[in-house]
Fold:
Amino acid sequence: MKKILLVSGCSFTDPDWWSEYHPEMDTSWPKWPELLAKKLNMDYVNLGSSGAGNEYIYSSLLDYITNPQKDVDRIGLVIPAWTQCQRRDYQRGLNGRWLSRRLDVDGDIFGWVNKSLKYMLSLQLVCERYNLSYKQFQMLNLYNDFMDGLTVSDREIKSGKYPKGHKLEYPGYNNDEKKVVNIITNYEDRLDTKHFIGWPFMNNFGGYSFVHKYLSNHYVSELDSHPNKEGQELIAEKLYDRLG
Structure:
């Protein structure tokens, strides 16, 4: 029986993702978890969900790994595709349905980055506890998109809340990035960075996020920055090259 590639992420990973900008477009092309699993000769479980933040990504993997009804021995590789830090995830209802907001109305960039790093460290400890192979990587920029001015969503534009192309002004100060960098580098002694592809995932400090390094020419359109078919294939290819 094949081992399982266990993956979670946001819309860049979601197997059922569709374009809000181009709802008529057929986006059923294989996403990177499916493509990577084929390269590795593995089955796969893709828990990715559009709009999800890092709390969901961590929690969905944790729930699967610790579920007594799942065969943890079948899990051959765990990969979280981390996303933007300013997103907020929460659960509602008896069954714990996950919902998300694109921008957390509480906290600030320092707290959000700190929380995301805790999820990364905690997932590492969970995988070590269950003796699971794992690789982490940053799919979207962790904090840059928010600090550079977060582009409003197509849904917000259609509702009339913001004009097309509007960006939310960063509410902090010019030197905040230095403080964020210090928060991240302070985790180097706790995180096993050899299991983190692209560490320290900051473009100006020798690391990278996948969206910045590989996907600039593989978007759906000028309006929609999600990876197209070739972009998904490229993500799988680059991950496969870095798993050895």
